[in-house]
Design goal:
Elements: H1 13-33, H2 38-61, H3 67-90, H4 96-108, H5 112-118, H6 129-148, H7 155-190
Helix pairs in contact: 1-2, 1-3, 2-6, 3-4, 3-6, 4-7, 6-7
Amino acid sequence: MEVSGAEDRIWTVPNALSLARLLGVPVFLWLVLGPEADGWAVALLMAAGFSDWLDGKLARAWNQTSKLGRLLDPLADRLYILATLLGLALRGIIPWWLALVIPLRDVMLLGIPPILRRLGYGPALPVHFLGKAATANLLYSFPLLFLAHHDAWYADPARIVGWATAIWGVGLYWWAGVLYWVQVRQLLKGAGTP
C-alpha cells in the first residue's frame, strides 16, 4: 500500500537498490569469512558502492527521495563498512585499531537522534558532502585492501592507494562526525537550550 505524500513513499527504485544493498551485507561477510572468495567479495563490494551512488542519483533525478530512503541508504553504508572492517580484521588484512576507530565514531553520534527528536526534527541530520566523501573513500579503500593481500602484480599499487584512501576516509569520517555535533549545538542554541 502506498502512503500518501511523496516523502512517505516506500516502493521506489532507490529504496529497492538500498534494500538490495542491505541484503548483500551477510552474503559479503560469508564470502569473506567462509570460502574466502575474495574475488566475489570484492565484486559484491564494488556493486554495493555503485548502487550507493546510483540510488542517490536516481532519487534526485526521478524525484523519489523519501524518509525511508534517508534511513536505508546510510544504514546500508554503515553495515557494509562494519562488515568489511570485521572481515578484514578477522582475516588479518587490517589491524584491529582501524576496525575499531571507525565504529567508535558512530558510537560518538548515538546521542544525536534523541536530541533531534526532542527539538522536533527527524531522527537524523541530512548527510553532508563531507560525510559522503568519507564514506566514498572508505568504500573505495576496502576492495583495494583485499587486493593488496594477494600475491600478484597489483598487490603493491592496491596497498598504496588502499591505505591512502583508508586513512583519508577515517580522517574525513571523524571530521564529519564532529561537524554533526557542531550542527546539533547550533540547533540547541537556536532553540534556546544551553
